[in-house]
Amino acid sequence: MRLDKPMIKTARRTGAAVLASAAILLTGYSTDSAPAASAAALRAASAKPANTSSSPGIVVSRDEDRDSVAGAPDNFTGKVSIQPLYTGDENSEGASDVRFSAGARTVWHTHPAGQRLLITKGTGWVQEWGKKRITVHKGDVVWFAPGVKHWHGATSYSAMAHTAITYAVDGTNADWLEHVTDDQYRDGKRRK
Questions:
Q1: What's residue 45's pLDDT?
Q2: Rounded to whole angstroms, how far apart are CA atoms 177 and 49?
Q3: Whole-prediction pTM value?
Q4: What is the pLDDT of residue 180?
């Protein structure tokens, strides 16, 4: 069994379709309506590697080549910065570093194939619809099962950053819903 075959497919996975889906999923904008910096960042994140031989070996995506973009106001409250790390195809995973200023958060949303968060800085909150809010800290790992309505973000007193690994189904990795109200955010109580 050849182990390098999936790597070749992944290394060559580029193009307008991946860029367009990444733009919409990460920022809420299509590349047609995204600010120039957003489109450039997503192109860099999915750029073809320098080594295009039949066996890529090692592919390095440099931090300075992946610009951050602001989180779309329809999907976030407060100041949120998203740096794409890698994008997949319509049925695989992608990852981004997401930085929330104190008080910033996502809207309520679900993921058709789930999401994993690796908390990398600060203190944050995560909450599943109908359950109590949970405090998370640097080093914690959070799993949201497919279809679970939830939100996540920084606490009111601390910034928070996480690496989000999200899995797509038919080109969709998130279904964005209504904003988390200030009352829901502040009290963290169960909501039915």
A1: 46
A2: 36
A3: 0.70
A4: 97
